[in-house]
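REQUEST ID: PR-0412
SUBMITTED BY: lab tech R.K.
PRIORITY: routine
TASK: structure prediction, single protein chain
INPUT:
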Amino acid sequence: MARRLVVEETPTEFFREQLERAMDHQKVATSGFTQYYLVNLLTRCLRGEALPATEPGYDEMPLAVLYVRALEASRHERARLLRGMGDTALFVSGFFAESLNRKLADLSYYRTMGGQAYSRLSREEAPFPFDRSVFSELADRFGEFADVLSEASPGEVGSAPAPRRTV
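STATUS: complete
OUTPUT:
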């Protein structure tokens, strides 16, 4: 029987394997829920899904302004904005860490703001299809997970679209 030269694999399978490999290499362990969340985040970014859904002016909104806006929003909108903010900060600080060193909003800013968003989100009473402890773990270990995402990223960063955010 001839072996196939091309293996068909879904983005979810690809990122799960990449994430597991990076976590093994960096000796990072996490719950299955958090690992699933990270794989899903990468898959959503690959598909070009906005973090969160786009609205006028969102692309130019600094994370700190978005955080204040989220705190002033209704419960459901606050959860949506905080999750989008944390996801964006995690993706950017994982996939684009090196390019942030030359920016006004550096890697430390993204990691701090993303960790704050996830921390606040872990205390929110919002309807999530999973345990909120995922957000607590993402907040507490934000830097570790950003490093794992950095290693799990495809060889060329250009193959994964950047989230819609500028600072």
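NOTES: DSSP finds eight helices and no strands in the chain.
REVIEWED BY: pending
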